[in-house]
Structure formats: structure tokens, C-alpha cells
């Protein structure tokens, strides 16, 4: 799923001199395709204005095959960066892109320079939040398919723990989901204490809780 925006949504209503002044507060650079934006940031930079191309929010996990993005965005986009390796997602550039990196203070200076730019940035953030929610809603059926697959593969035994012998690739093929999306859903189940992933198997801690989960979404 793509979002369709024009670059003018960030600079719309700004004279070009004001737009140039806004970008002057950040570090304007080119980022090559198939690169992690976090690898391009410098000390203190926490926000990136993505000005061209496409960017994806990718899961950070060992078995990502590197072929597709989760929640892809078309430019312009406003991205919150992190150098914290324990987080489960990061930004991956899908094509060569123009990016402007900001520290919090430099972004605040840009807002002071152009309140209209600040208003435009909030509008873009609202679009991104709406897009992410729509994307997640579209994939709610994936959770239903995955839980059904896990429960069908486990031997019935009341609400005791059950072990499912299957790889993420097998679950992806069975459910019609990407392996990356299966990984993301499994991590969500782990956070909720409903499952535990191992190498080639998944332990279901609460089958009854897993059965009820889709109706809670």
C-alpha cells in the first residue's frame, strides 16, 4: 500500500526563500537505495524529513529477507530516528532519496523561522498516522490466519502449553502472509505472553487466550 502525496505538502504555502531557510537548519544529504537511515544519522539527529523516493518501516529481526517494506511511505515523510538497537523497527530506504536530518533544537529553530512549515509538518504526521492505522487494519486478517494456523498445528490439550513445530517460512506459505509480517505478528504475540518463538518451533503459552485474541482487535 502506498500513500500518494506531493512534495508541496511540506513546503506548500511557503515562498521558496522560506523553504530554503527551513532546510538550511537541517543537514541536507542524499541517501543511497537499500540503506538504513539510522546508519546515515549523525550525533544528536533524531528527525529526518524524507523529501524524495520511498521509505519503509522495517522490522529488525534475523530472518528478514530484505525484499519488501512494512508500512511503506512515499515522500514527503517525517521520520523519527533511533540508534537504539533493541527497538523492533527501523527505517529502510527503498530507492535513492533526498533526506534532511534535524536535531531537536534545529527543528525547533525551523519552526520558529516558519510557523507555516510547522503546520505543514503536523499535517504530514497526521497523514502518516492515518496511513499506518489503515495499513494495520488491512492486515488484521493476517492475525486471524496466523492464529488459526498455529492452533490447527498444535495438539488439543486444554489450556496447557502447546508446541507448534513450524518455521516462519512454513507459516508464511500456509497463511499467504510475507515471512516478515509473520515475524512481526509473532513478536506481538510474544509481547502479550501468548507465545514464545524458538528455532523451528513456537510454544503457545495460552491457547485459549490465542483463540480470543482476534476478537479483541
Key structural traits:
single chain, 217 residues, alpha+beta, Jelly Rolls, Arc Repressor Mutant, subunit A, 4-stranded antiparallel sheet, 42% helix, elongated
Task: Explain what this protein looks like in three dimensions.
42% of the residues lie in helices and 23% in strands. The chain has 217 residues and is α+β, with helices and mostly antiparallel strands. It folds into 2 domains: 131 residues, Jelly Rolls, CATH 2.60.120; 76 residues, Arc Repressor Mutant, subunit A, CATH 1.10.10. A hairpin with a 2-residue loop joins β10 and β11. The protein is elongated and about 70 Å long. It starts with 7 loop residues before the first helix and ends with a helix.
Care to give the gist of this entry?
This protein has 217 residues and is an alpha+beta fold.
In angstroms, what is the radius of gyration? 21 Å
Please state the overall shape, judged from the principal axes of the Cα atoms.
elongated
Distance between the termini: 21 Å
Kindly state the percentage of residues in helix.
40-55%
Largest sheet: 4 strands, antiparallel
Number of self-contained structural domains: 2
Instruction: Return the string of H and E elements.
Output: HHEEEEEEEEHHHEHHEEH
Helical stretch count?
8
Number of strands: 11
Could you say what the CATH topology of the largest domain is called?
Jelly Rolls
What is the CATH superfamily classification of the largest domain? Jelly Rolls
Rounded average pLDDT: 79
Strand content: 15-25%
Walk across the major sheet and give the strand order: 1-8-3-6
From the coordinates shown, what is the CATH architecture of the largest domain?
A: Sandwich
CATH C-level of the largest domain: Mainly Beta
Structural class determined from secondary elements: alpha+beta
Spans with pLDDT under 50 lasting ≥5 residues?
1-5, 61-69
